[in-house]
Amino acid sequence: MSAPARDQHAAFAPAPVVGGAATAAGGGLPPDRLPVEYVLPLRRSDDTGLTGLTDYLRDLTRWVDVTVVDGSASDLFARHAAAWRNLVRHVRPDPTPRGANSQVLGVLTGIGLARHEHVVIADDDVRYDEAGLRAVHELLDRVDLVRPQNHFDPLPWHAWWDTGRILLNRAFGGDWPGTLAVRRSTFRATGGYDPDVLFENLELVRTVCAYGGATATPAWLHVRRVPPTVAHFRGQRIRQAYDDQAQPVRLVAALAVLPGVAAALAARRPGLLLRAAVATVAVAEVGRRRAGGARVFPARTALAAPLWVLERGVCSWLALGRRLRGGMPYADARVRDPAHSIRTLRRRLAGNGPGDLVLWVESDVRAAGRPTAAVAGCRNEVTGSAAGRLPS
Description:
The protein has 392 residues and is α/β, with parallel strands linked by helices. It contains 15 helices and 13 strands. Helices cover 41% and strands 13% of the residues. One of its GO terms (molecular function) is transferase activity.
């Protein structure tokens, strides 16, 4: 758990800012721009892909205001500042909140500086188009948090492999993407979310649910994601399996894979494994076809699902070993908790205070209190047709 951060009555002290919002004559937004803040938390060890990211940021600034919270080393930060001068608002993370997860610290800074009520949070490999941003913006008029769905494009072998995970998750409700969107007022009223967890997106969604906010997972809202390098993909196998420890049903299912395979082989019944593989492909195909997904997920991606399940079965045991040794290495620290339960978060938020979560907003923002909607698990989730298909 993070040490208590700043005094909740202290004013937010933003980092030095480069760049600003686009305005029309008279001080308002240009008619073709959205009142949306795009927050990109960044921490790079090299400049691979800088040109592509800069081109994407240039496209984004045609539609929304952009804040890049850059925790990269000084030399890289300076290069980024030169590349993005007068293009986006480029800042250092606020040094006051403390925690192991630099992604969360970047989000805390970015939303603290947000100029609009609707905020999109995205990793540096996410690629929104204008239609996707407009859909998120319209959904945030109705819910507190939106969880879009990612797809890889292009699709090298390792992205094909990982798409097996995406399709299975879609079949059972929704994948966990590299982007979320949230109302600034809701985020500020919760006091933010814990920066000492590994699965930060799940932590944020559960924090909003525990607060009483409504969330939506529109299966039809497909947002492109650039695939990682092969080295990065390999390095994430155990780390992603560690996230399942915050979701007990998934964890039990993953841990059962290897014993199940061993039992089938010991009984000399390979047909059981073949039938299990066929069933897994069938479930993935349901996820692929759901809500128009066949437009962005090629038919061959469903075939990756059994391979991904076998990989997760192996890596879940390795991740459990990491837990017993104190947690998952992350940057220069070890993070033990993948995410907290809704019950734990609700208890922290009880009494209009989030316990020892980072208190980074002024008390008057929280004084209005949280919504009165009852929360039982995450039953305030809006999915499927209930979320409504918005025009693109």
